[in-house]
Structure formats: C-alpha cells, structure tokens
Request: fold
Amino acid sequence: MDTAIAVVPMGLGHLRQVLDLGHQVFDTTIKPYTSWSLTAVAEHLDSPDNACWVALDSDRVVGFVLGSMEFEHRDDWAYLEWIAVAPDMQGHGIARRLVNVCSEALFARGARHIVTDVEDRNSASAALMTSSGFVPAATVTLLVRPNPDAHDDDAALPPITKRDLVRRGRLSIEHPLR
Reply:
C-alpha cells in the first residue's frame, strides 16, 4: 500500500481530473446502458448522501470512487457505482483503500447493503470487490437483438432516451416515444 497517496473527499476542484481519468480507463461500450459523463459525476457529487473520494499523489488525482445512498427503490441500500485508478498507479492498494473508505462512509450513513456491478471480463475488479467483502448476488446477461434490416449497428438512441440515460445512468422512458 502506498501511504504517500492521500485519500480525501472529492471536491469541485477534482472534477476535471476525475472526468478525464474516467474517460481514460472506462470502456462504456461494454455495457451500453452505462454513461460516463460530466453529468454522471456531478450528480454523484451533488447528492447529499454521496460517498465520493479521490486518491491524490500531490495534486494529481490518481484514483476515485463514486458512491451514493441511491440504489433503485431501496432507501437502505447504497451503490458503489464508479471506481478507477490510473493505469500507472495500479497495484499499489489504492483501489482497496477507495473501496474501504467509500464503504465505511455509506455504512455510517445507514446502508444495510452496498451494491456494485462488475463486467464479467474485468477479473481484477471482481477480485478486488470479492476480497473487499462483496459477494455475488445476481447475474444479469445483457441480451441484444439487432434489427436484421438496419444498416447501422450503432444507431443513436432517441434524444429523450439519451438524456434519461445520461441523467440517471439507466434507461427508463417517462414519455413513450411515438
């Protein structure tokens, strides 16, 4: 563990570096319902029950975790949604420190359980979460049926859905498309 790395609550001054680090390490094409954006980060930071932390090497953000007391319709469950460590800083225990500080903060706010999800090919993250006390609870398989008549496999979502996806991190349409 690298004790020279400080883990501190995330503030507005960290926003640009957190966003850039996320763009560097996250592949959101794997789970197309996942959206990494300024809005996603800002909504976590703006949440009154956030558990957002950064790992700092001097003034450089080398890792972060974004958690909140908002998980679907469960007021007593928390969500550890995003965690990242700069590639050149991985293997120094930074991610474990971030998971632990985020989890402690969420439990202190009343969480009975903390939920996280890991893409099945991300074995390093799965090992981290398992060794940090997370246990498998459900397996969800994203099934996609392409339109055989469509020419573009990566067609954009309609604007109302895209906005909802960016704001909430999940697809739900309040106003049906016509």
Q: What stands out?
A: DSSP finds five helices and five strands in the chain. The CA atoms of residues 40 and 167 lie 6 Å apart. Strands lie at 6-9, 51-57, 60-68, 77-85, 113-115.
